[in-house]
Write a structure and sequence with these properties.
about 150 residues; alpha+beta; Dihydrodipicolinate Reductase, domain 2; about 20% strand
Length: about 150
């Protein structure tokens, strides 16, 4: 999985976003669980400030490589970066995911009107948050983090 923004965000955003694992990679954690159809049991993350020294000065990183291991032993390799040096066919996530946002809103309306079950629930958001925090811990300690099952 590769997520790269065209350019780094403003420093005031970096200072309040929670960091790359929580503001950018969290969406990939969510997608990895969805695509695999199972939980993640281990997270290993490395990263650094390779693009914008101001991001490092703000206490964050701008580049990360994350390996997830699923409960059944499958791997997911994530590559997150605050800049796509090779360019980007679509600018930021608003443009890249416009159709997905439309479909989300249609599903939400269907939930309200017809009581249809949501595709994702609060537990999915919680798991993405747990994985983001595990990635941050792994990055800080240099060690893989085992994810306890609920």
């Amino acid at each position: 999985m590769t997520t790269r923004d065209p350019a780094p965000p403003p420093i005031d955003y970096v200072q309040r976003s929670g960091g790359l694992f929580l503001d950018q990679a969290i969406h990939d954690f969510d997608m990895a669980r969805y695509l695999l159809g199972e939980d993640i049991s281990r997270v290993y993350a490395v990263g650094g400030c390779l693009i914008d020294p101001a991001i490092g000065a703000a206490g964050d990183i701008d580049t990360a490589m994350i390996t997830l291991t699923s409960a059944s032993g499958r791997f997911v390799q994530m590559n997150n970066c605050r800049r796509a040096a090779f360019g980007s066919p679509q600018n930021y996530f608003i443009e890249r995911f416009t159709q997905a946002y439309r479909l989300e809103m249609a599903a939400f309306v269907a939930l309200l009107r017809n009581g249809e079950a949501p595709l994702a629930g609060i537990s999915d958001g919680l798991e993405a948050q747990r994985l983001a925090e595990a990635a941050r811990t792994s990055y800080q300690t240099g060690l893989p983090v085992e994810i306890a099952r609920h």
